[in-house]
Amino acid sequence: MKISVLTIVRGRQAHLENQLKGLLQSTVLPHEWIVVGMNQEVTLPDCKRFPIRTSSVHHLTEPLPLAQARNHAASLCTTDGMVFLDVDCIPSPDMIGKMVNALQAEDRLWMGCPRYLPAGAADGDWQMDQLQQQAVDHPLQPQLGDLERQSSERYEMFWSLCFAIGQSSFKRIGGFDDTFDGYGGEDTDFAFSARKASVPFGFVNAVAYHQHHSVCKPPLNHLKPIVENAERFRRKWGVWPMESWLNAFAERELIEFDKDDDSIAIHRLPTESEIQKATSLTPAGF
Q: Which Pfam families does this one have (predicted)?
């Protein structure tokens, strides 16, 4: 099976070049690497091992049109197999090969295995064995151990940072719903759409090393799109996503949130000072 790696990016140039360095060490090389910039053009070093195809999407009001960018990347893909890999992830040498094996075994929505790096681990001239030694598992993700693959009915555990899917299943799902503008909820919506379309879900022990960066906890810097996407999700699926974030916003009296209601009242947006105080060096995802 031929497989492509699809990456969307805004900023994060060092992360993007680290991902390329990781891809070049893969035991199974991608047929192509598709990189889509969000409201930016993409610049990358020359690569002779596989084709790099770059493109961009532009949104008038939203700096991170995640769903739109992933759909655009998929539309450019020329292979049956697709691996979506967030820009802050470095693939382990056997990640692509394990994704190929998983898709050949069954065309599921396969989520990979993100492992998290400490600050500085991927700075400078890093070596892959150093990443392997320093990376830690996420406590909420399944520990597969010697198991390479595991089926799951818990679609709510899907994260879009590292996953594989066949073109036919992606089209059956309908791709990402690009009415979800910006950050928050679009990946859970995609997983729920997969369940509705009877596309099975599972985990594969295909490791991607997540590069360290600061994160706002809760994501006050994305409050408005999170609230709007949460309301959209509620209308579509009848449940609230991202409840821990919404509760955290409510505790700060930024919003009025009642899980039995169908809408959220925004009292005010956070100040820059509040955003800075909420920003930490905790690895993103924790």
A: Glyco_transf_7C (PF02709), Glycos_transf_2 (PF00535)
Domains and CATH numbers, the chain: 3-213 (3.90.550.10), 216-280 (no CATH)
- Give the pLDDT score at 283: 54
pLDDT higher than threshold 80 for residue 145? no
Kindly report the pTM of this predicted structure. 0.94
pLDDT tens-digit readout, 148-203: 999 999 999 999 999 999 999 999 999 999 999 888 999 999 999 999 999 999 99
